[in-house]
Design brief:
This protein is α/β, with parallel strands linked by helices and 380 residues long. It has eleven helices and twelve strands.
Length: 380
Amino acid sequence: MATGFSCQRERFDIPDGITYLNCAYMGPLSREVVSAGRAGLERKMHPWKITSPDFFEGVEAVRALVAQLLNADLDGVAVLPAVSYGVAIAAQNLRFSQANTVVVLEAEFPSNYYAWKELADRQRGDVVTVARPSDGDWTPAILEAIDERVAIVSVPHCHWTDGSLLDLAAIGERAREVGAALVVDGTQSIGALPFDERVIQPDFVITALYKWLLGPYSAAVLWCAPQHRRGQPLEFSWITKEQSDDFPNLVDYRTDFRAGARRYDVGQTSNFALMPAIEAALQQTLQWGVESIQAYTSDLNDKVAAKAEEAGLGVAPRHLRAGHLMGVRLHGVDTEGVAEAMAEAGVFVSVRGDAMRVSPHVYNTEQDVDRLFEVLRSAI
C-alpha cells in the first residue's frame, strides 16, 4: 500500500477465505472492542460495585472522543440509540416560517427522510427531492435547489448507495445565505472521511456507530450547534436533569437540564455494556486517524475502480466519489443475483439501488480486491 498505513486485519476475527468489502452494511467489531464490551457487561454481575459516578464518567468520555472526531465541542454531543432518533430531535427543534421546504437527496436513506416528511405534512410544508444528476455531481444540483423557500437542508457527506460525494462546506455556506438549517447524516462517512464542524458549520450532525466507526449496534451520537441546545428533547429522563448525580435527592424534581446537548441523551445512556465498547471503538479510530483510514481505503477502491473500468463496468470519476465507499454499476446484470453468488464464494458486498457497493476498511488488502474481481468474473 502507498499510504504508509499497514493492514489491521489481525485485530479482527475475520477467517481466512472471507473477503469482507461491506463495511457500509455493518463494520465488524475488533477484538479490543469486543473485550471492552464484554468487561462492561460483566460489571453488572456485581452491581454493588457500580457507583453513581459510573453512570456519567463513561458517557462523558464518549462525548469527548466524539468531539475530537468532529473537531467540535463536547457540550454539543448527545448519545442516542439510532440515527432516526437524532433526526427526530432535529425535526422537533427546527421550525418552518415563510420558508417551509426541506431539501433531501433522491434515494436518501429512510431514516433521513421519514421525520422530514412528517414535519412537512404537519406544518403544511414540502419535501423537495434533488434528483440524481446525470453527471454524478450532486453539489451544483443541491446548491441550485436551495433558495429562500428552503428551511432545512438534510444531506449526507456521501450518498449511502454509491459513495458519491457532496461538498458540505459549500452547501453549508449556501444554506446560511438563505437562513436554512443544515442537518448532516454522517453514518456513511464519519470515521472514514474527515469531518470538520468548524468548516462545515452544521446545525445538527448525526451518525450511527456500527458502520465506519466499527462500534456496536443500537448506538449513535448527535452534535448540535449552540443555538439548538435549549430545545425540546424526545423524552424526559431523570439522567438529563441538573444534579442527576445526586441519587439520594432525585425525588427533588427539577425543571433545568444538564448543560448543552445532554438534554437530548436517550434514557439509560449509561448502558454499562455499550459505553465501554463505544469508547474503545472511538479510541481505535482516533488512534488510526481518519485521514489515514481515508487514504488506505481510497487506495484500495482506486484499484477497484481501475479493474472495474478495465472490465467495462461503470464507476464515478474519482473527484465525485468518497474514497472509502463506491458503487460499481454492472449495466443490466442482475446485481442481487451476483451479490448472492459472490457471498456463496465468501466475498461480501452490498447491492443498493443499481450499484454493487464496495466498502473496504483497514482489515482489507489488495488481495481482497483481486479476489473480488476473480469471483465477480465468474458470477456475471
